[in-house]
Amino acid sequence: MKLRKTIALALAAALAALTLAACGGNSTSGSQSAAGSSAGSADASTSEPVTVKLGIVGGINEDLWAPAKATLAEEGIDLELVNFSDYVTPNRALNDGEIDLNAFQHRIYLQGEIDSYGYEIQNIGNTFIAPLSLFSDKITSVDELKDGDVIAIPNDLTNGGRALKVLESAGIITLDPSAGFNPTVDDIQTYHVGVTIKELKANVIVSTLPDVTAAIVNNNYALDFGLAASDAIFADDRLDIEDYWNLIAARTADLSDPAKVEVFRKVVDAYQSDGTLAVYNDQCKGFYSPAGWDQDLLPQA
């Protein structure tokens, strides 16, 4: 099928990229030791260049932030993108001061991380909303699912919970209504098809598509592997729920410093721009839409 060919080509390209990265020895991934943030001591009113380290996940986010990076450079701000390979490290790195900001998560995920780890970080600006989609290279409709089929979903609480809600919307399962936004497999009350749900790390799920019947794949990973929203066999329609808006996060302590707030405001404004909209339209294959750009979440001077 077309989807299988796309995934195979993308996997080959990813392996080649990993080989080149290993040979080059230089990487901005979350696996390296960060040098520490620099925006904390920056004063945007001076002529000295300011460096802001922004944690992201997935290659598509480098494209999403390219227009903002160019705009900020004209204002004397060097936006350094630190690309992490998973959803766990960026908040820890932000909380520990290794980066200045991150932009990879929606509101429910951020709140779950705060509740679990006590991070003192918060939303300073909204970015986009995207559907969470079910992909397959074996079937073209959820109606083709049968007993014994395997569906892979993310194993973290918030993405996994949203994935289960997608499966419920698709009529595959029924969840306990009291489970809220973050149900687990233990909250499944009824299987309308006798599928097996396999929980895996979000960053490896797309590579398992040849081995499972279908999989819930986060959009940044889907884009990195050449998938489009139109390739999905089902997607949720919860695009009006603010809890699923993605965001830019900062350390709470930094928001008491007017100089830092001024720099962060420029970062948020640079992202919430026509340049970013053009990337959504030209490169994001139907996945992303702007969300909450009219909300000012930073402290006022």
Main β-sheet description: 5 strands, mixed
Task: Provide the low-confidence segments as ranges.
Answer: 4-35, 41-45
CATH class of the largest domain: Alpha Beta
Broad structural category:
alpha/beta
Topology order in helix (H) and strand (E) letters: HEHEHEHEEEEHEEEEHEEHHE
Residues in β-strands, percent = 15-25%
Radius of gyration: 20 Å
CATH H level of the largest domain: which superfamily? Periplasmic binding protein-like II
Query: Which term fits the overall shape?
Result: elongated
Query: What would CATH call the architecture of the largest domain?
Result: 3-Layer(aba) Sandwich
What is the end-to-end distance?
56 Å
Give the overall pLDDT as a whole number: 87
Give the % helix: 25-40%
Give the tally of structural domains: 2
DSSP summary, beta strand count: 14
The CATH topology assignment of the largest domain is: D-Maltodextrin-Binding Protein, domain 2
How does the SSE layout of this entry go?
Layout: H1 2-24, E1 50-57, H2 59-74, E2 77-84, H3 89-95, E3 101-106, H4 107-117, E4 121-126, E5 128-129, E6 133-135, E7 150-154, H5 157-169, E8 173-175, E9 188-191, E10 196-200, E11 214-217, H6 219-224, E12 234-235, E13 246-251, H7 258-271, H8 274-283, E14 289-290
Parallel strand pairs: 1-2, 1-3, 7-10, 7-11
Antiparallel strand pairs: 3-13, 4-13, 5-14, 6-11, 6-12, 8-9
